[in-house]
Sequence to fold (637 residues):
Amino acid sequence: MSHQDALISEDIIAYLEAQENKSFLRFITCGSVDDGKSTLIGRLLYDSKLIYEDQLASIEKDSKKSGTQGDKIDLALLVDGLAAEREQGITIDVAYRFFSTDKRKFIVADTPGHEQYTRNMATGASTADVAVLLIDARYGVQIQTRRHAFIVSSLGIKNVVVAINKMDLVDFDQSVYNDIEVEFRAFAKELGFADITCIPMSALDGDNVTSKSNKAEWYRGPFLLQYLEDVDVEERSLDLPFRLPVQWVNRPNLDFRGFSGTVASGMISVGDEIIVIPSGKRSKVKSIVTFDGDLERAREDMAITLTLEDEIDISRGDIICRKDNPAEQADQFQARILWMTDKELFPGRQYLMKSVNKTVPVSVTNIKHRIDVNDLSETAVKTLGLNEIGVCTLSLGGPIAFDAYDQNRNTGSFIVIDKHSNETVGVGMIDFALRRAKNVVWQDLDVSKTVRAEQKNQSPVILWFTGLSGSGKSTIANLVEKKLLDLGRHTYTLDGDNIRHGLNNDLGFTKADRIENIRRISETAKLMVDAGLITLTSFISPYRAERQMAREMVEDGEFVEIFVNTPLEVCEARDVKGLYAKARAGTIKNFTGIDSEYQTPVNSEIEINTVDMSAEKAAEVVVQYLEKNGYLKGPGE
Fold:
């Protein structure tokens, strides 16, 4: 195993030192299905002699069983490790492999070409310095070729190798190569790559992979390994501003307090002045501690612990920067998002955003447009689906420290997490902070919510009535409000039909519009709670996520969910407005209970079954709940 080097036998210490001091390159192979990505990596490993003899014997055996190359050894099996990958002949997961030559060490990510696994491809590309984009010479530039090229560009990879593979199947025809190169360069003109190098090759036979091929004498450029050994990607990363996202406050005893993390970019030295974002606290680096001992200087990718000359408050999620070049901070952004799940992205719905070490609530306030990866055109949309890429505006639950992704890939990237399933549903790249995030702050008012509530001798609350159309929500809410007025309380009712005449008259009944409808209602109800009112809302509000969002907008105890649990058949039999009949006839689309789902509450504070209870009795139950739980008294009484 391992490439040969005379130093191994002559001076093992010198050999190990030489290996340790080699430069390091991460690269990714990507492209459409069956373009030869796994075979290419297998060829690199095989020719670099980084395969154990028992591995080679196993691959030779498996080639006869699962291989696709006839009597030849199927090198793709070296990286297609999953049983499903071998059975289907495709890559599903990201496979990382290490190999080394006399000049450089490498980690290569073999990523899937199938559209279904685009999110895995994006994972592999997120840390790569170079992308090797494979194209089958027989088929040319495909849709997935364009999609992967766009994702590679969006993720900040500036150096791309277009490996025009399987040239042996077209007799190394130069005109085929030229046509593909012209088509790809025309498409990639707007992607901002610093360098595009096209190489004709056969990964299966090794032509122009680790050595020059004599089958394409018309080609004058480098072979692949030559390019990978010589490409310069290190200097730019070291010139970036210093960023240390704090992962852990290291306090093993009373005499030591350090701040641990992996350097995201740049360099730092003992004695350098630093600033902590977002607190703005300043100090100097006292020492740089590592597992192998203290250092005078640290650089990108090093795991370090910084100790400072001053005792300042720093927490996990803060970013330590050099004083002369701090990171920005904001809570609203424009960003590009690649959506990675079958569940659509809806503006207004709340998710979690994890950036470096900090996790905060986030919602997409607007999808400005979706980007068509075929021609880079922009299309107005209301949602994003699986593998779609959109330019969006985001609103966060609190400020984060960041850099624009184009300036710093580590501190400008984030993932989007579903709050309920903890599934990673999207990956994003920050373009810039929105001006409003920096300039708009909460105005302190002398008259507070507590003062307003005390004046009204009540505790403000949102009474959120939810249920199917025809369940009796509005009727019960109306009776509750009348009873509260008789008790001298101050109220206001937000009714679904009434709101759509004004505030929400621009919204339809698609899932995206329903989510936005409830988002606006929630914000309005929050303002009314701040005014000290008992606020009644009567909306179908079919989705649990939006009802939870409304609950989280106010303080604990200021949201009471009232599930008016009337069966569909009862609601349909009532059909006062004739809506169910129209929905059954197909003249009304996206009608809850018919062709649009209703997610029943799981832990509502009050549940009312109007089959067994009259509207009058239901209203009494709600008022009694308010009395029992102190809402009809002033705060603190």
